[in-house]
Amino acid sequence: MEQFLFKDVTVRAALAAPGKPIPRVLVDREVRGFYIIVNAKSARYVLQRKLHGETIKIDIRRVVDVSVADARARALDYVRQITLGQDWRGDWSG
């Protein structure tokens, strides 16, 4: 796993890096559990958290569809909802 502070420019550079193995995971240094899964055809922002002892993965958006700032804000909103015990799936549009 590669770990760095996600910014639009650093994410684009990491995705364009030749010779990197596929699939791979890019991990954000700022938000715990926020990462990008890179496959041969796409890359998606994901948030992973523990909820009642089980690991949940929330698919946020494709990297090409949203900025890092928007994806991080959405991830932090999910973290807030999960922490408060709210149903984070209620307004989820994936």
**Global shape:** elongated
- What is the CA-based Rg, rounded? 13 Å
The major pleated sheet works out as: 5 strands, mixed
Q: Can you list the strand order of the major beta sheet? A: 1-2-3-4-5
Average pLDDT reading: 88
The CATH architecture comes to 2-Layer Sandwich
Query: Superfamily at the CATH H level?
Result: Integrase, DNA-binding domain
The CATH topology:
Double Stranded RNA Binding Domain
Helix count, DSSP H or I runs of 4 or more residues: 2
**CATH class bucket:** Alpha Beta
One letter per element, helices H and strands E, the order comes to EHEEEEH
Distance between the termini: 24 Å
| Percent of residues in helices | 25-40%
Assembly state (oligomeric)? single chain
The number of E-state strands comes to 5
Structural class: alpha+beta
Number of domains: 1
In terms of DSSP E residues, the strand content is 25-35%
Low-confidence stretches: none
Précis, in short:
This protein has one domain (2-83): 2-Layer Sandwich (Double Stranded RNA Binding Domain). It has two helices and five strands; from the N terminus they run E-H-E-E-E-E-H.
Features:
94 residues, alpha+beta, Double Stranded RNA Binding Domain, five-stranded mixed β-sheet, 2 helices, 5 strands, 33% strand
Descriptive account of the structure:
With 94 residues, the chain is α+β, with helices and mostly antiparallel strands. It has a single domain (2-83), classed as Double Stranded RNA Binding Domain (2-Layer Sandwich). 27% of the residues lie in helices and 33% in strands. It is built from two helices and five strands. The protein has a five-stranded mixed β-sheet, covered by helices on one side. It is elongated.
